[in-house]
Amino acid sequence: MAYPYQVTNLEQYHSDYKKSIEDPEAFWGNVAENFVWRKKWDRVLDWNFTEPKIEWFRGGKLNITENCIDRHLETMADKPAIIWEPNNPEERVRVVTYARLHKRVCQFAQVLKNNGVKKGDRVCIYMGMVPELAYAVLGCARIGAIHSVIFGGFSAQSIADRLEDAQAAFIVTCDGAFRGNKDIPLKSIIDDALIGNKVVQKVIVFTRTRTPVSMLKGRDVWWEDEMEFAETQVEKDGVVSFPAEETDAEDALFILYTSGSTGKPKGVVHTTGGYMVWTNYTFVNTFQYQPGDVHFCTADIGWITGHSYIVYGPLSAGGTSLMFEGIPTWPDAGRFWDIVDKHKVNILYTAPTAIRSLMGFGTAPLQGKDLSSLKILGTVGEPINEEAWHWYNENVGKKKCPIVDTWWQTETGGVLISNLAGITDAKPGWATLPMPGVQPLLVDEHGKEVTQKDENGFYKGNLCIKAPWPGILRTTYGDHERCRTNYFATYENLYFTGDGAIKDENGFYRITGRVDDVLNVSGHRIGTAEVENAINMHAGVIESAVVGYPHDIKGQGIYAYVIFDKKHTDDDLTKKDILQTVTRIIGPIAKPDKIQFVKGLPKTRSGKIMRRILRKIAEGETQNLGDTSTLLDPDVVDEIKEGKI
Ligand code: WT7
């Protein structure tokens, strides 16, 4: 393949790594040559982490959709860009060729234009996993509008907050979404989110589930009608065209909201040039993508994994991306294996939580499924336990597929630490080595590099990165100071990831989990403060404290300690009410797994909740709770221990 820059052997990995650190401008300038630029950049990199200011390919002009679509048309017009597997296996598969993708994206770009969307406008996308979601994302990119995709599991309130923060005037949604045996009424959730909203002008609704919807005159329009009209505008004598808007390398491409340690989700902003280079580079190198390979990333496009490894990475590489509408356990726990068999999937990229949940069904669902097309397996989202790693390796990969354990974050745009399939060594449970261009550093709580090994022979510390890579976030939308304090102020001149890690004598990294108040539940990031805020919205709740605890399938579960108004006596009903409240405020993904009613919370004399103690109790520890002498009322600890569920 002409386009990507691929590392093909171990020596090259090491020499590229060295080059990327010694002269990042030369290295990334060289990688970036493999893309279509309307105008070349003036400077590859300019940065400081104090503001922070990070500019990649300054002065470069491009449109990312020309790189993801147009440039492939000459040689790959009839090759599948997207293979869509519907929720219901009986329904027809859709194969979207590059030519068809081009047409649909041009049409949808025209629809956006017809509806008044301009370059720089924010467009909120709240859809299920249908190809139209990819068209919507790419249609925005084609006209230089900034997309902000919201995962279908978020509530009306969460959407309202995000719309407000992004000042989005446009929404693209579906009547509903199919997920397993459920039908989620997306449009009606949007309607709730829009009560009192004065900014949104247009809502474009794609028909998927035929759930009844109310269409507001002047505001709501049907996708199908709009597309039909746009077709007459973009297609003349069988030739399709919609000129792509020229964007600057540093123009925002999208906003994606993610949880942090404070109550309010942040709008992580990624820009065009650097993100394109990074997703493409990490995609072709981590997975060692070869032309014709079918890549199946099981994530939802509502998360960064879907943005980078269903849409932008694979398409910029001229790849074939398999998009799955449903869930791994419906109609049965063999669904992934059916899909691999049916579409001859070569690369499977999923989350440890999915592997653990499928492990629970044993190997019967794998029987009779031909998985011989698989060449490479991947995991993402959370640390993978060795048991799950081996199960994946033996039963899915049949011990012949390298497994890449890819560590990264919404903020990093793409993979930062991972083995490269078949090129660098794997180590179960370890993400292993940094990608070229990535300089990890483990620091202690004062920001000093950890240079002493611990009792197990590892370097252990907080994971930071020393210098920018092309896919790093540029800001948090509308609040640059928040970006600085969140990521660049904890340790001077370092990007702080929020993760703890260990490093072995080979320089391999193992990410051990978050060291801040962020939970990782089934690979989804949830802030404890956010869940507490939601619980506290319930009229009867006086105070709450939320911590994570080890959960066999989800990785972490949510444990909530709640002080409740004495007037209420029915614990079960009250718990359900609290769950309902959290579902309302954040969405079903943030529902606590356990709720324990308590009379008091362990607090210091200055009123700070001692979460360390609550975490230990939630983990099942009763003896070594550490120093409790600074507690205002040490008795509450005994009471909490007794009531543990
Ligand atoms: C957090 C980022 C990266 C896309 C999906 C999640 C955890 C991610 C791994 C891994 C151990 C991992 C980290 C990170 N994480 N990948 N391979 N091993 N932990 O994106 O929602 O931004 O969450 O997920 O804790 O900080 P996200």
Description:
Strand 28 and strand 29 (524-527) form a beta hairpin. The mean pLDDT is 96. The protein has 645 residues and is α/β, with parallel strands linked by helices. It is built from 19 helices and 32 strands. The longest helix is centred in the first third of the chain and has 17 residues, at 98-114. The strands form ten sheets. The protein has a seven-stranded mixed beta sheet with strand order 5-4-19-18-20-21-22, sandwiched between helices. Strands 7-6-8-11-12 form a five-stranded parallel beta sheet, sandwiched between helices. A four-stranded antiparallel beta sheet has the order 23-24-26-27. Among the domains are: 98-245, Rossmann fold, CATH 3.40.50; 518-642, ANL, C-terminal domain (GMP Synthetase, Chain A, domain 3, 2-Layer Sandwich), CATH 3.30.300.30. The termini are far apart. 5'-O-[(S)-butoxy(hydroxy)phosphoryl]adenosine binds next to helix 11, strand 22, strand 26 and strand 27.
Number of helices: 19
Q: N-to-C terminal Cα separation, in Å?
A: 56 Å
The CATH topology label of one domain is: Rossmann fold
Overall average pLDDT: 96
Structural class: alpha/beta
Overall spatial form: globular
Instruction: Give the low-pLDDT segments.
Output: none
> What compounds are bound to the protein?
5'-O-[(S)-butoxy(hydroxy)phosphoryl]adenosine
Strand order of the largest sheet: 5-4-19-18-20-21-22
Major sheet: 7 strands, mixed
Counted beta strands = 32
The helicity comes to: 25-40%
Query: What proportion strand?
Result: 15-25%
**Cα-atom radius of gyration:** 24 Å
CATH class of one domain: Alpha Beta
Please tell me the CATH architecture of one domain by its name: 3-Layer(aba) Sandwich
